[in-house]
Amino acid sequence: MTGKNEFLTIAPSSSNYSSNKDLLSQVKSIQRLRKPIKIGFFFTDATFHDLQQLFEWSWTYRIINILAATYESYPTETSSDGRLSIFTYNPFGKFKVVNVTSQSFDLFFISQKSNLQQHPLQLTNKFDTDKTRNTWMAVFQVMNCSWKLLTQSASKNSITPFDVRTTLLSIFQFETNLLYPMHSLLFSILTPEALPYSEFTSYLRNILSNEFFVYTSVTIISVIVLLVIARYKNQRKIQFFACATDVFNLLMNDNSAMKYNRLSLVEVFLIVPLTFVGLVIINGIFSNLQSHITKPFQQPQIKTLEDIYRSPLPVITFAIQYKTSLVNVLEARTKYNWTDKVIMIPSLSLEERRTSFDRSAMYLTKDEIVTSLLEVQKNLQIPGFYKAEKGVFRAIGGHVMHEEFQFAERVNEIFHWIHSAGLYDLWLRQENDQRVKSFLEFNIERMKNETFHNAGIGTVSMPTFIAYGWCASIILFIVELIWFNISRQNRINFIITKLRNNEIKVRT
C-alpha cells in the first residue's frame, strides 16, 4: 500500500455480482482512501453479465484503474478456449467491456490520457472571459471530448454521483490547488485621483450662486437708483454714471473725494447701508479671492494606507474571499480595524461603478484592470482613479475542478502546456486590449448622454480671466473717454450760452 504503483488484489469466491456487494463496498472504501491505487479482480470463472455489472459499478463510483482476470476466454455462451483473459471497460461512447489480453499492458487500465471519443465533459459555469473559453477549448481539443453546460447548481449535493465522474466546475478563483495555477493575481486599491482646485470661474460661480449675494446686489442697485432720483430732484439732471461711481467708491472704501458738507440728507442716509455692504461683502469677496489664488494647485492625493483609512470613502470588493484576504493584510500592516471599512457589493454593480469612473468609493482591483482604467482616463482626459496601494496582496489564480473528476491530471498537463507555450499570456493581452476598447466606448457614450456635459459649463483658466479683465478695462476706458468728451462739450456749450446771455444783458 505504500509503493509507487499500489495494487489491490481481490480474489472473490464467486463472480456473481449480487453476492459480492459487501466486498465491493469494502473495495470502494479502500479506493477512496488511496485514489491512485490500481485494482485487480481475479475470478475462477465469470460470465459476460457479471463483468458488465462489475465495470458499470466501477464507473458509477469513479473507479477507472480496475481490471478483471479469469481463466476463461471472453465469456460468451458459445466459446471457451481455456486461457487466461484480462478485461477492462471503455465508458466513452457506448459503454462496453473490452478484452485486452492480446494488447499492450498500457491498456489494462483506463489511462487518464485516453481519447475521450467526443464524450462530453460537463461544466457548471459558463465561460466568463475569452481567455477562459480559449483555454478550455484547447483542453477539449487535446482530450478529444465535447462539452455541455449543466443546469444544476455547482454544489456537490446537486450533482448525482454519475454526473460527477466527468463534471468540471471551471470556476476561476485564487488560492486553489486543484488545477495548475494559470495566473498570478496582483491586487491594488484604486482611489479617486486628486483634482486641481477649482478654476476662477468656478469660484465666481460659487459666489454668484450664494443667496447673500442676491441681497447684496439688490441693495447696491437700490442705492444707485435712489441716489439718481435724489440728485435729479436737486439738479434736474440724470447723473447715473456719477451716482454709480460714487456708490462703487464707497464699496471700495475710497471716499476721500467725497465732500460730506455738499451731500443731501438722502445721500448721507445711503452711506450707512453702503458702508455695511462694502466692509462685509466686498472685503469678504476679496479675501476669498486672495485665499483662492494662493491655494496649492493640486488637492491632496490619497496614497498611503493611513490616507485610505482616514478617508470617508469605503473600500469596495465583491467577494467574501477578497474581503477576508484584504482585511487580514491591512490589519497586519496597520493598527486599525478594517472590517467595517471594507464592504461588499454585487459583482455587476462594482463593475458598473468602476467602469463609469464613479469616484464616490475606493476599489480593490486586479492589476490588469487597473492598467486598463488608467489608460482609458488618460486617453479621455477625464477625472478618474489613482493607484494608491500598489500590490496590496498577491494570490495565485486558477480554475476549480470537482474533487471527484477522473481526468484532473490530464487537464493539469494540458494547462501546463498552454501556459508554457505563452498562449495564456497572449490571450490575457488580447483580453486587456478588448477591455480598454470597451471601456473607451462605454465612457464616450456615457459622456455624450450626460446632461452636465452638454450644459456648456466650462472652466476658464486664470490667464483667460486676466484677458477678460483687460478687455473690460479697455471698454470702460473708451466709455470714460466718450463720457468725458460729452461732458466737456456740454460744459463748453453751457459756458458759451452763459457768455452770450451776459453779452445780451450788457448790450441791453
UniProtKB/TrEMBL annotation:
The keyword Membrane applies. It is found in: Cell membrane. GO terms for cellular component: plasma membrane. The chain crosses the membrane at residues 212-230, 265-286, 465-486. Its main location: membrane. The keyword Cell membrane applies. Keywords: Cell membrane, Glycoprotein, Membrane, Receptor, Transmembrane, Transmembrane helix. It comes from the Eukaryota. It is a multi-pass membrane protein. This is Ionotropic receptor. It comes from Pseudolycoriella hygida. The lineage of its organism: Eukaryota, Metazoa, Ecdysozoa, Arthropoda, Hexapoda.
